[in-house]
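S.,

As promised, the flavin-adenine dinucleotide run. Input:
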Amino acid sequence: MTDTQWIQICQLEALPIDAGTAALLDEGKPTEEQIALFRITSTTQGESTIFAVSNFDPFSEANVISRGILCSIGDELAVASPIGKQHFCLNSGTCFEDEDVALKTYPSKIADGQVYVQSSELIQE
Amino acid sequence: MSVKQKILVIGNGMVGHKFLEAMTTHSDADKFEIATFCEEPRAAYDRVHLTDYFSGHSAEDLSLVEPDFFAQHNIRILLNDKAVSIDRKAKTVTSENGETLSYDKLVLATGSYPFVPPIPGHKRDNCFVYRTIEDMEAIRASAQGSSVGVVIGGGLLGLEAAKALKDLGLTTHVVEFAPRLMAVQVDDGGGAMLRQKIEDLGVQVHTGKNTQNIEDGDQHFHKMTFADGDIIETDVLLFSAGIRPQDTLAREFGLELGERGGIVVNDHCQTSDPDIYAIGECALSGGRIYGLVAPGYRMAQVTADHISNTGDNTFTGADMSTKLKLMGVDVASIGDAHGNTPDAKVYTYVDGSTEVYKKIVVNSDNNRLLGAVLVGDATDYGNLLQIVLNDIPLPEFPDALILPQRDGSGITGLGVEALPDGAQICSCNDVSKGDLCQFISDGATTLGDLKACSKAGTSCGGCNVLVGQVLNAELEKMGLEVNTDLCEHFPYTRQDLYNLVRVEKIKSFFDLIEKHGSGRGCDICKPTVASILASCWNDYVLEPEHAGLQDTNDRYLGNMQKNGTYSIVPRIPGGEITPEKLIVLGEVAKKYKLYSKITGGQRIDLFGARLEQLPEIWRLLIDAGFETGHAYGKALRTVKSCVGTSWCRYGQDDSVALALEVENRYKGLRSPHKLKSAVSGCTRECAEAQSKDFGIIATENGWNLYVGGNGGMRPRHADLFATDLDKETLIKYIDRFLMFYVRTADRLQRTSTWMDNMEGGLDYLREVVIEDSLGICEQLEAEMVEVIGSYQCEWKTTIEDEEKLRMFQPFINSEKGDSNVVFVEERGQIRPATSDEKRQGIKVVSL
Ligand code: SRM
Ligand SMILES: Cc1cc2nc3c(=O)[nH]c(=O)nc-3n(C[C@H](O)[C@H](O)[C@H](O)COP(=O)(O)OP(=O)(O)OC[C@H]3O[C@@H](n4cnc5c(N)ncnc54)[C@H](O)[C@@H]3O)c2cc1C
Ligand code: SF4
Ligand code: FES
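Predicted complex:
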């Protein structure tokens, strides 16, 4: 995988802490998708990690995941759908209430203060 | 063809009706053909709560009849029809209206009538008794335009009647023939304390007074002259000198009566004619008349069982212990209150400063409790009663039962755990400890649920504390001690967290979870803490440290709809709006093609706004003078109003002005759940105030305040909290009530469930809010003033802050909108397209 397959989304500092934000991946392309980015800061060092999952809530069929509340369930990080309150694991995308349902997840990284998510063009190949 | 057995009941009072209910629950209920004569113009109602009629409860509120009861069970009720003769040979009964019905079994449930001493003048106008709704109506009518009221009789009912007269605004006197009040129930010491307390409340008590004559007065309607020459003048005169069993029919048609009246019955409640039964206050069982409803209910059950041949339930007497609150004074009497048992010993405790009197009567061996009298503080009632009823051995020093437990040691071994399963906890509804335990193990694990399914505590309320104790003890025993932790991140209840935030002046979720929690929080604790922080410090909810805590509705200051768009609900205080503002709403809705609807809360909701449109729309609305309506928040929603005095011919006061004032006072107050209110201008109640968390109704003399009402999933009629308040007092009580709720309720607990789960219920709430029993009222008021002082329209703050507006951009890296949001047209407006419609590519509305 080369660096060109990472798509630059925004500056890290533009994202609210411990909350979600929506972004468009592959804007204008046939693979255009809405994603939900979550910026998590470690409580001790103040360092950030990014999780990227699909913004589409499979239960309500609305694009709202980025507007859900960030949760920790045991050791896992999760987001609660703002419509039906189902919880989705940020790492695997799996729904805690219904294991057959999952959000798509996207590899993401932070480099030089910028947030990158892997293009879904690649994932589809 | 099997012929149905004919059951005829004379009297549809409390006990007669209980009998009907008991018959309908028997498995072979269809084998009976039942009819009942009812002398009164309405079917059975709750006589025990008759006095509530004066404080806003209507005849329907007092009704004991389930909707459709008579039709559903095929029972014929002959209203307004008095039975006048019985033909025991032909087995028929004939009524005043000329109906003759035959019976196989006849049940007399004729109750009793008030005794009026034959004092010359007792039949004058403006002389009343206290027994029926018609009596209440007559008393109320006569009290209008009167200034003084006298009750003859200082017993239980007399004192209750005195309170009613006082509440009707009369200068009130109680005249008692005996040397003390409540002579039947309490002893001299208790009577003296009771008298002192009642006089403190402004009712004048005259004991040892023998009324000799009633005639025209000089200043008032009546002049009463006593044997000792004293006189009192009064406008209204009420007799409450005891009751007499209504045994006329039995007397005329040859059934055996007691020496001093009452229809003699055996253990199955049969009279001297085995096909005729007598139950309730007309029956004489074991030589006694039972003037309380609980024993009557038992008789009803026994009779129903006997007639339908189920079990051999018998009535062999009942406990006459009582606990009451008379004019706010707790009074209780248990068992042998007067120490009449030979060689009984007595312990008393008197606290002159708080006016508490307690006495216990124990047997000669000092190891069994026989009776007790409590005045001023009856919290021990439940425990003491159970000790008597279950013959529980006493501790070595029985006085420990009534001495204050100042060192917190408590009495061990005599709590509810010591009670056998058969112990009757609620006598009104005949619920035993075993019954309660069964309900608890079946899942009723909150006080509210337990009361709802067992009915315990729902009549006189005297057993509430005990019901709560049984619940707690059982939960603990089942190891099922309900985990009251808010969630996995905080080992605390909402109340605990509230106190921590207040006391430690914690200002952010981060600080709270660092100090008192673990993990990163979740969709339960974050909004809860956000709400607590807002109740305490009222910061702007979208500050960076708060924004991520909010439920989506609070985070975007609108209610999220099923397709991810939002609704817009501007505040329209009291539902009052100018045409200009209405036009603005119309114009904004038209411009953005928003679906418009009048809500059930007297305001207007505009639906279908996209995230990115919210700030623009709100800017227009704020420019036109609107504010946020907090429809998205667990906060004050609407205060509905009716038109009131300005327009309505019945209005007693300006309900619109008050609704505006109340809405503007509490807008922005964040609370455990949403809060709704309403103000009605008169008792017709067009604003539906009695279904609100707090409701206000204008009366001739001020405002009545109701609390704990709810519509929604489990409707609850609000409780009348205080009457005839001036506005200042009204607002003071509401401030305290709301802040006490904010302080002590659980997460997402409406005031209705909060009230249902409150040990001590309404009385306790009154003590806290009106009498300041916890000494916190000043603090509660100060906290409210702080919240009111820090109010801001969240939308105004938001549109003025560029930084915040970025949040409403749909994507951080694009100008595009959400292409998945599409609408179709319906009845001339938009609505979200369904998934099917989207798949089928149906014609959408272009925006
Ligand atoms: C718009 C409205 C219906 C309407 O078209 O008339 C409405 C709409 C909603 N109600 Fe309501 N309720 C509306 C009046 C009522 C009323 C009537 C009233 O207030 O007089 C009640 C019964 C009264 C009461 O609350 O005691 C009512 C009882 C509920 C309940 C049940 C509450 C309960 O204690 O059982 C919920 C659910 C909840 O809050 O948990 C609810 C929740 C909701 C929510 C917020 C559901 C949701 O989460 O999406 C709805 C969204 C509103 C929106 O998107 O703007 N709504 N809702 C009414 C808005 C009134 C207003 O101007 O603010
Ligand atoms: C103000 C007040 C407060 C009270 N407070 C309490 C309390 O706190 N706790 C408590 O336990 N008890 C209390 N009581 C007592 C309680 O109300 C009675 O014990 C109960 O109502 C008795 O029920 P009953 O069916 O025997 O009589 P009732 O309820 O009086 O019913 C008898 C009915 O029979 C009708 N009737 C009589 N004769 C005929 C006829 N010939 N034909 C047709 N109908 C007829 C009467 O009109 C009446 O409607 C209170 C009573 C009052 C008035
Ligand atoms: S069920 Fe009631 S609250 Fe829910 S959307 Fe329908 S009308 Fe509104
Ligand atoms: S004892 Fe009256 S309600 Fe329980």
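Chain B has a mean pLDDT of 90. The CA atoms of residues 177 and 643 of chain B lie 51 Å apart.

- D.
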